[in-house]
Structures are given as C-alpha cells and as structure tokens.
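Model the whole thing, not chain by chain.
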Amino acid sequence: MIGVTACAAYLPRYRLTAKTINEAWGRPGGRGEKTVGYFDEDSLTMGLSAVFCVPNGDQIARAEALYFASSTSPYREKLASTEMAMILNLSPEARTLDIGNSPRSGTSALLAAMESVKAGTYESVLVAAADCGRLEVPGGPNEATWGDGAAALAVGKDNVILNILHHSSYSDELSHFWRRADDRYMKYEDMRFPQVMGYARIMEASVGNMLRKTQYEPSDFAKVVVDAPDLRSHQALMRQFGFNGEEQVQDPLLGLIGSLGAAHPFVMLVAALQEVNPGDKVLLASYGDGSDVLILQATDALPAYKEHIDFKVLLDRKELMSSYTKYLAFKETFEVEFQDYYSSISALFRERDRFSRLMGGKCKNCGYITTLALRVCPNCRKKDLFENLRLARKGSVFTFTQEWYYPSPEPPTTLAVVDLEGGGRIYCQMTDCSDPGIVKIGMPVDLTVRKYHEALDLPHYYWKCKPVRA
Amino acid sequence: MTVDFKDKIAIVGAGCTRFAENFKLSYGDMLAEACFEAFEEAGVGPEDIDGAWLSTAFVDGSAMKGRSGMDLAEPVGLFDIPITRVSNFCASGGNAFREACLGLLSGVHDIVLAAGAEKQRDRPPQKSLVKMMVVAQHQFLQKGETAAGQFAVYATRHMEKYGTKLDHFCMVSYKNHKHGIKNPIAQYRQEIPLETIMNSPMVAYPINLLCSCPTTDGAAAVVLARAEDARNFNEGYVLVKAQELIVNTGWDLPFFDPRYEFSCFPSTRLAAERAYHTAGIKNPVKEIDLAEVHDCFAPVELIVYEDLGFCKEGEGKYFVEEGRSTAEGDLPVNVSGGLESCGHPVGASGIRMIYEITRHLQGKAGERQVQGAKLGLAHNIGGPCAITSLTILGAP
C-alpha cells in the first residue's frame, strides 16, 4: 500500500512570548509563545532543515521527486523546490513542484505525492512543507499568532510507516486570512465571521463527509490531527464531532509554536505519532480555502521509526527571544548594510557541487580532501584528479573568530574553521548562536543551509555550522 | 631557489612621508614627496633612474590610482624606462624592493627605484579594507570576515595551544604605541595605558580595536644601486644581506586546508630559515640589532617572534612579557611604533620598514635610534598569511 515512509518536523530555535510583544506595546498580560526563524532562515532553508531531520538519509537519496509546499517561498518566480533538489543533490530527472498560497498546501503536496506514486510514475516522492514570515503588522492583535516551522515527509510503497487509507478534498472560497501578491502582512477583516462560517462550517463538511463516506465513528481514531486557525475554533469543532480528551485529540500546539502554515498539520502529526501504535488509525485534516482530509493507519514499521524522532526534544530545545526589538531586527527592520556584495550567477552555477551541494573533492592520487573548487591538488600537485565525495554534515570547531563589524542583527558573527567527520575542512559562519561565550575550540557542530545575503537581488544559500545541543 | 643578495646591493637613498590621514596630499603627491627625499639623499634626479617598481596593494581606494607603473611615472617624472606595478597584499612593498634588487643583480639596471604608496583615507575607514573583505570577495568563502578576523583565527588557536592570553596581545600593542611617541612620521604618537587597550571594544575576537592598526595614507621609497657603485651616490649607504619572498598557500586555501595548524605562519618560518642562511645568522636574538615586523594586529607580532626564531614555539608570550622586544630589550621590535602606531598604508608599509632600518643603520634615526645598530630585519606578512617578505639589511 502507498503511504508515508518517513516524516520529521523542524522548529527554529527562538520563541517569542505574547507577553514580550504586549510589553513592547504597553499592553498587559499575554499567554503563549510562537516560533521565530533565525534572521538567516526562510521557508526554503527551513524546508531543507526538515529534510535533514528525516532520520533515514536514504529516503533523500532515493527521492525521485520533491514537492515543496509554502505560502512564503523566497521567490515569486523561480522554483524553491528545484533549488532545494539541487542542494540535496537529487537527480536532474526528479520532478520538482512548488505548491503554495494556502496553509492547506502541505496536505495538497502530500496528496499529489501519493498520486504520483499511485500512478506508478515514481517510487518515492519527498514532500517538504515550510512557512517562515507570515507576519502580522507590528502592533496588530495577531502578532503572536503565526510562527515559523517546517516538516518533511517521504511517500512511497516500501517501508511504509503510515498507510494512506482514504483521502478527500473540499474546496470553499471564504476570506479568512489572505495576502495579495505584494502584501507583506497578513490581511483579515472580521474575526468571528470566518470562525463560524469559515472554519466551523467547512471542517464540519470536509471531516463530516469523510466520516460518512468511510462509515468510521469518531471513536475509531486513535489520534485526531486537525489544523485550526485558533484554539477556540479547534475546541468547538472537536466537541461538535465528539472527539474526546487529550488522548484522542492532538493539541494544535498554537500556544507553544504558533500557527505554522503549510507545515502545521504535519508538525502536529509528528507530535501525535509518539502515542500511535501499529494498527492505529489517524485522522489528519488541514484548513485553508477548504480542507484536505486523510485517514492514515500505522504499520508495524512505525515503532522502530519513532525511536528516531522525539518531538518533545524538538519542542523543548528553545531559547526565548530577549526582546521584541530583536524580533523586529530579525523580521522587519534589518537590511544588510552593504548592498553591493560581489556575486556572479555563472560562478554560482559552476561551483555548485562544492559550495551548494557540499561535495568535497578527494584526490585519486593522494587522498587529500578539498572543499574548494580546485583543479590542482595542494598536497600532491597533480591536476584534475579530484573525485566528488559526499561530506558529512557534522564536525568540530578547530578555530574561530567573532566579528563585531560584519552587519548582522545579532552581532558578533562567529566564523569557524570546522573539521568534518570523515575528512574535509570548511570555514563558515555559525548560526543559531546568540551567546558568543558558548563557542569553544573542539565543540561539536552540525552543518545546515542558511541564507547569507541577497547579492544581485538573489538569495544566496550556503552552509553554516550550528552548535550541537543536548 | 634562494638568491644570494649578500653585500651585492646597496640602498643609497631613502624617503618616507608622514604616515597619517594625509587629507591634503593625493596618491601622487605622497609618491613625489617620498621619492624626492630618496633622490636627494642619493644625489640623483628622476632622469637618473633606469628602472622602477611601484608597490600598491589595492587600487579601489583612490580613483584607481596605483593600477600600473604609469601611476609612478606621472607624479614623479619618471619617463622612458620600464616601470612595473607590484601587488602582493601586505608584502607588496617588500616584493617591489626584491624586484628592484633582482633588476640590479641581473645587470640589466644600474640605478633603480622601489616605491610604495597607498591612499586609504579618501574613503571612511569602514569602506576601505573592511569593505573590501566583506563585500568584494567570493560570494560564500570567508563571508562575514574582516581583515582582523583572518588573523584572529590564528590568535584563537595560539591561545588554545600555548595558553597565550589576550593580555599578551595587548602588551604588544602597548609597547608599540609607546615606541611610536618618538617617531615623527607615525600616525599615533601617544602612550596608551595597557588597561585602555585591554578594555577597547572587540573587533574580531580575540583582536580588539587598540590591537589593530588604523587606516592610513602614506608613501615610501628607496633608491638602489649595486654595492660596488654605492660610494658614487652616498657615503651613508646600507647593504642588503638577504631578501626572501615566500608564498606558501592561497587566499582561501588555508582556511579550508585540513593540514593547516593556525598556530604559526609557515611562510615566515621558511623565509627566516632561508634569509638567515644567506645572511649567515645563527642566533637571531644576539646578532640582529632591531626588527620591524608585521603587527597589523598585535597577535601577529607575538606569533612572528616564534616564527623568526626570536624565541621558542609557544613562548612569544614570555618574549613580550619580559620586555625583550622593547626599545631597551635585547631585540628591539618595531621601535618605529610598528603598524599599530605608524598605520598601515599597505603598499607603502614594507618600504617604510626598510626606510626605518636604513635610518638606524645610518645612525640617523633621531630620538628612537637603536644605538650601534649594525644589522636589522624587516618583515611583512600578507594575504592574510600566505605571503612573507623578509629583508635583512646591514651597515657596510
């Protein structure tokens, strides 16, 4: 049967509390917090981060297609999925597809992946869903509502952990939240009207239709994973259907991470999996300009897979943003001081094996490993004997400096010489590091892709190291 | 590979402008000033020079001046001769000097000029070297790093490996600022309390602001002839004992090369080994009377003590702590005030150091004179660490 063969969630490190926001605007109280992407993250890097979180690396190598779901792609024209596939070193014959414009796009990508496998076109399809930068206007009432995050799933026929038993889609035009093509901030009009006539009505129809069609009772599901724009609407809907209690109903996590757009249903699913056992059925539903509903069933392969994903660790590995000002610097006001960084689209193209794909070159004569785009080996001085070598995304700091004069919303910028496990050395910025005092020679780091700058008005993605945290 | 320069080439004239924010002087004005001081000492005019080398490291600071030999011809009146521009980062000056020496040694030329100039303060400091490093280089490689950071990764590693402390770097800067008081051409001529240096803001950890050289304008020049002709020009000439130029790695390579240790400068070690051999130096601390070494950032000078064999590996901290490199110490280093007091107009610095050593060997260094100096050393490292120029000069 066709189903999900792998899944993982990614949450950025920072959290902003509603209280911090309210304090900044002179308002009392505030409950809950939301995730905030680091200043060098966007939906493309978060989608990649989620893919890197997938425990079995073979899933990536095997993927014949990559579908990327996001309403916050860094590009209006240019496929984020193609750039991600290039970085992930997928085959050039892989199909790449960007799906967007709605928090429903994540499940839509999953359904498209399922259908591609079902049609026999591909054996394995990778789905990445990410949103970063769905913003309320500063000072607006929904500033704590939308967070940043991502999830990745693989769909195929072999080693399935969650079979897809049923699926249906429901389309209904209603203006709940929207952004026009050039809007920076989320738009909305009434709050009550879309809760009643939007979410409640549409989800009653979509989930209700599915239950009627399949003849399942609400009690047939071990877990009910239903996205929602707000907590009250979610609670009302669960009551309406008679889904009961914490054990059955997956918390929408809105007060912990905010609403993560395309990634949200999947992040909830990853959270729910901790309590799902073989044979259990899971109801998964998204919301946005309608709704997609899926019924999934856990296979015997799930328990072994679950050992590699611990959602609680992901949730708890966080750092509260010290101030609203810093949040603004990350999201709103920070512009790179030097706008005229050198770059070249032809150089980006010809050096993409080394720099975008993190492929080293190993000298066939002497075994020396380079991470630069060289033709002559600096060790044995033979020409054109470097073979591509996949480098580890793990290593340790050999030496470092911290630059206070490089423009950044969070100086200093740490630069580290990193020795990679299995060979090769790279020199790059450190990210997710607000405390320069933690940086030490010998500290373990992971490599991840982040945005360095936008020379030529083009986002430039390259590797950064980040501290490995318990 | 080593060229035996010993006692074959003579410096017969030397000149240097104030190293300062020379807002009233253009790139060409400074070259004219430095070259004519050297001409006057040698008793020649521009029409007597039959070959020249111009050192300017970066040309984007001042209307692209310094791109070619033309930019020496025009302001100084050198025409109808070969003039070559030399650019090799901070070692550019030493490199131009070397080419001039080779020109004489080959027999092609009889009287040559090596001049260096850099006009940095037609732009605010943030837009000069900092901008070049941060903005103009490769879109990914070393991105985020300033010139200070390129050397800072060495300092961090040295601290880890040998227990060197930030205080030791500050002691180097303290000493050099104190020396600078007596140098009339230096940009900064005041003592800075050690505590002020230690508390100055961080630029690139572990390098702070007062352990960094300023942004400066300046030019320097020397007139050279073969040793046998030296007396025809100037009684006070000095002799070249050795000159080495070593490029041991690349611009990006050291940071991405798993073989690299970051606790020493291999190009300097190799240059010292070869130069000492040519000059017949066995014990540098005993035999060398003064040294001008590259202190663009204070940790560099401390590490260079070790690479030049002034002390053992890892013991640079004791060398500065014990005051051995002060004007009164057993090997005075940077009695000019170094790059930290003089400033570092990149293309001019190497020749300024040669000018400095020349004045001491002539006994004409004024207040800062190292008494009885007979042998001096001038050292530059650049690119950031791939290139070393090492020149040893001696009194006849």
